[in-house]
Amino acid sequence: MGKKRWIAQCFMLSAFVVGNMSCVFAADARIEERVDSVLRLMTLTEKIGQMNQLSNKEDLTGQQLEYFDTETLIRAGQVGSMLNVAGVEKVRRYQEMAVNDTRLHIPLVFGLDVVHGFRTISPIPLAESCSWNMDLIEHSARVAAVEAAAAGLQWTFAPMVDIARDPRWGRVMEGAGEDPFLGAAIAAARVKGFQGDDLSAENTIAACAKHFVGYGAVEGGRDYNTVDISTQRLRELYLPPFEAAARAGVATFMNAFNELMGIPATGSTFLVRDILKGEWNYDGMVVSDWGSVAEMIVHGVACDKSEAARLAVTAGCDMDMEGYCYVSALEDLVRKGVVPESLIDDAVRRVLRLKFRLGLFDDPYRYCDTEREKRETLSADKRDAVRSVARESIVLLENREGILPLNKRYKSIGLIGPLADNPDDMLGSWCAWGDGRDVVDIRQGIEQAVGKSVAIRYAKGCEVEGDDRSGFSEAIQLARECDVVVMCLGENRFMSGEGASRTRLTLPGVQRELLQKVKETGTPVVLLLTNGRPLVLDWEKENIGTIVECWQLGVEAGNAIADVLFGKYNPSGKLVMSFPHNEGQIPVYYNCKSTGRPYIPNERYVTHYQDCPNEPLYSFGYGLSYTRFEYGDVALDKDILAEGDTLHVSVPVTNVGDYDGEEVVQLYIRDLCSRITRPEKELRGFKKIALKRGETQVVEFEVSFSDLEYVLADGSRVWDPGTFELFVGGNPDVVKKASFELK
Ligand code: GLC
Q: What order of strands is seen across the sheet that includes strand 109-112?
């Protein structure tokens, strides 16, 4: 349909809007009038059609519960949104069906999991979070949004903001780790990156805070398992990143699959109507997770689709993703008076509001420009941006012998391991339209970095998994012949992500054995890890002096890793999730509580294991640099605070090493006596600073009074008079301390 005809249609549709065409482009303030003007035209059937989301059948991201002919349903006005459709041509084809063939010409909204990049894949979110660089994280989401929007998309099912303390759960790779304060900052940064300042612009997309809520607390780290947490823990740990996303203006939320206190999140009035749409006054749209409406039957709280539909719409779920419950049962429920039509109207208003905010009623083909699609896909500026993010995502875990950075005095570097030239596994498991052929893998990155000056020799040694040791002898021989060995070990991309929980977190297959054999040759070893979760590295930490956590870094993995290996970039990453000594220690996290019997060495009746320390192997907030930073004493501008006061904190930090570098200065507090138990350390501030060799910077923090409050199970925020401790350092275990009083 030509643009002219569309404008005419839009004008006809908007004829009910007060004023003329110029108001069609009126500011947001008039969107409600436009929404209501459309709602008034809709039949009940058409309203319910807007609450139905279907997937492209060729790219399912879940089990297909039923088969419907998508095009027939679209033309009948029974589909409000499609997911897993991308590319201008495909999007336009479906959009034309909705706009041309339905009675009211209401455009579809197209969503996809653009979790860390659309085609120019950036590091997995767990890696990006280790940069602690909010501007960079926002920019990474911006890059993804521009490319996704150019491909016809208007909506991403990201950021995933689930707090996670259990690395057995494969979906930790999608999130920002274990801390609610950092998780909240990252949630806001990613929302702003995806959505920009104008959701109707053709290069921004609606974001989606998911999975609401508590999904990261699945028992045993087993995906989709039961979740049962106290309301207190829900409030203080799992909700803050979602509230931050809501405050940042996230356009949509997604229900979690899990139950919470016996009620599936998709049917939880407490979570969606009381907290999200009530307490937080949220006016965006809530979409179910894939089939999570229908899954309430399997959870055992609904006897059939009709009951599941009733529970979900009553609880405030506005759109049914691939559940076929709304579109098959809601009309009957309304006609029988079981579900008030006002609930349908509320949901449809939110769906229409999203489409108006995206500018789809002004021009449903705004995101369908093939020239822009060609120009924006995999552009050089996007690759450069992703390379910067990737470098800052890398965490240096060990450099005991000072092997790194590898200066080029070596004549030969042995590259060994199944992840050395493995482009697909650099992409991670949620890689949208990412393609391994776009990836610079580790071998390519290192070869490009050293050119002809150093011989790079390669032996795979073994696979990521399995017990085939036939490649060992070649790898061992290669190690004997080279000046230094770079071992590329870890997980393949589908060992983490959705449906990828694991109970053993040591290096899969026979990789550790290969590492042990290579170490026995006596050639210096650099261990590079490519993985989507914290691993169990107890033997590695004990026996390998140089370990670099590279995560899954996307299309620029090899270049970013080479930049760090050869000192073009001094690693600055800090872990956002603790690494356990072993699986038996899980969950282990930095912000733990004292308990009534805190650990005392050589005491029996204190909280401890007989065979493992209480602390993690590597803690949240930990990461090394090629240089060293020294902290001076912490100065406070007051040692007594009255309600509403702000505490000014300053600490001198000096780069006392041999390289320019960046440091993440972290500020933690401890409330020594409060009406409920509190963690021994809580992150309440961080700043990433750059220091040249020998440079000192006085780092300033402002701790607001609200940072010293805490939330109770009823959602109220409170504070208690008494003593606080304050800690500042480059990780929570090496800190300078101060204390102050609240009066
Ligand atoms: C999946 C995931 C969710 C994703 C959705 C659409 O099952 O749980 O994170 O956004 O389905 O792909």
A: 155-156, 109-112, 81-83, 52-55, 320-321
CA distances in angstroms from 455 to 406, 476, 481, 482, 563, listed in the order given: 14, 17, 11, 9, 18
Predicted TM-score (pTM) above 0.90: yes
Q: What is the tens place of the pLDDT at every residue in 499-535? A: 999 999 999 999 999 999 999 999 999 999 999 999 9
Residue 635 · residue 680 · CB < 8 Å: no
Confidence at residue 407, expressed as pLDDT on a 0 to 100 scale: 75
What is the rounded distance in angstroms from the CA atom of residue 231 to the CA atom of residue 234?
Answer: 5
Q: What is the DSSP string of 654-698?
A: EE-SSS-EEEEEEEEEEESS-SS--BS-EEEEEEEEEE-TT-EEE
Closest-CA residue, ligand 1 atom 3, reads: 289
- Which amino acid would we find at residue 498? E
Q: Are 166 and 172 in contact (CB under 8 A)?
A: yes
What is d(CA 549, CA 126) in angstroms, rounded to the nearest whole number? 11
Angle between helices 134-150 and 380-393 in degrees, nearest 10: 150
Q: How far apart are CA 528 and CA 550, in angstroms?
A: 6
- Looking at per-residue pLDDT, the higher value among 60 and 497 belongs to 497
* Distance of CA 594 from the midpoint of ligand 1 (Å): 37
Residue 61 Cα to ligand 1 midpoint, Å, equals 6
Over residues 470-497, the mean pLDDT reads 98
Joined together, the tokens standing for residue 432 give 């949208």
**Rounded Cα–Cα distance for residues 176 and 160 (Å):** 8
Q: What is the dihedral of CA 35, 94, 374, 383, to 10 degrees?
A: 70
Mutate to test the pocket of ligand 1, among 109, 110, 290, 429 (most ligand atoms within 8 A of CB): 290
pLDDT by residue (tens digit) across 386-435? 999 999 999 999 999 999 999 757 899 999 999 999 999 999 999 999 99
- Kindly report the backbone phi and psi dihedral angles of residue 441, in degrees, each rounded to the nearest multiple of 5, phi listed first: -85, 180
In this structure, is the dihedral angle defined by the CA atoms of residues 406, 408, 413 and 419, taken in order, positive or negative? Answer: positive
Cα–Cα distance measured from residue 158 to residue 145, given in angstroms and rounded to the nearest whole number: 11
Report the 10 Å Cβ neighbour count for 633. Answer: 11
* Of 259, 257, 345, the residue nearest 293 (C-alpha): 257
**Which ligand 1 atom sits nearest the alpha carbon of residue 257?**
8
Q: Locate the ligand 1 atom nearest the alpha carbon of residue 157 and give its number.
A: 10
> Taking CB atoms and a 6 Å cutoff, what residues make up the pocket around ligand 1?
61-62, 83, 113, 157, 210, 289-290, 498
CA distance 490 to 506: 9
Active site residues: 289
Whole-number average pLDDT of the chain: 95
Is residue 452 over pLDDT 50?
Answer: yes
Q: Given this model, what pLDDT does residue 408 score?
A: 59
- In tens, the pLDDT along 353-372 reads 999 999 999 999 999 999 99
From 477, 528, 525, 486, select the one nearest 507 (Cα to Cα): 528
Kind plus residue range of the DSSP H or E element containing 374: helix 370-376
CA of 290 to the centre of ligand 1 (A): 6
- From the alpha carbon of 111, which atom of ligand 1 is closest? 6
Q: Do residues 326 and 51 lie in contact, with contact meaning Cβ atoms separated by under 8 Å?
A: yes
User: Where on the phi/psi map is residue 221: left (φ > 0), alpha (ψ -120 to 50), or beta?
Assistant: left
Is the model's pLDDT at 1 over the cut of 70? no
Closest residue (by CA) to atom 8 of ligand 1? 289
Compute, in angstroms, the gap from residue 630 CA to the centroid of ligand 1: 44
Question: Is there a contact between 548 and 98 (Cβ–Cβ < 8 Å)?
Answer: no
Angle of CA points 116, 504, 400, to nearest 5°: 75
Average pLDDT over residues 216-224: 98
Q: Does residue 577 contact residue 448 with C-beta atoms inside 8 Å?
A: no
